[in-house]
Task: structure prediction
Amino acid sequence: MRKHMLSFIVFILIVTLILSINFPIFTANATTLCSISGKVTDYYSGMPLANITVRWVSGGLWSMNSGLSNSKGFYKFDVMEGRQYIDAYDFKNEEYVGGILKADGTVIPWYIFLVDRSKARIVNVNGPVSGLNIKLKLGYEITGTITDTGGNPVSKWRVEIRVNDHGTWYYASTIKAGGSGSKGNQFYTSAFPSGTRVELKIQAEGYKPITYDFNTSTASIDPIPISSKDVNITVVLSSIR
Result:
């Protein structure tokens, strides 16, 4: 997943700019610091996760306040009084998919938060707050090779990605030939949480588009069988001529 870090940083900078323009920053008392704490665990096994970065998010900007979970999954750090969001990311190992904390302890990715902030939990701090537990899921990357029916590489392609969250589809990103996330006739996505339903629409000039709809888990919808952490597919496009 390290190959995606540069594009991820660029994405985060863009998100920060958008949020700082469109979303109000919650008020905070700059003179009063309070501790927030909790535990980070694997969503399925409940095992503690170490080296997860937990941050205090003020509207569209990150404060300098953050903490790192220890070997038992616990984190604790001081923040200013106020009403803010919390996010968590596996910056060190890049195995788990992070995002903004929800009320149930899971997280939502930023591309959903951008269009629906109601899914995120607002943490009200006017004193020490404990029990801010976070459950993260392993990430699945999707890579693919795009060819024609003769096995020849296809150029001028694009992959549009949507993600389904509790019945609602959200636009995630678009990968274009020659752009970030591409190498020749190959593409690679950012990571999605395990169990996420993902739709890929692959298009190329002079070819019929094709759509894949599947879960990033061991239970595939159609037509992609998944038996390992990451998903690799071969996309064969038919000419419209």
Notes: The helical segments are 5-22, 110-113. Residues 2-6, 13-29, 218-228 have pLDDT under 50 and may be disordered.
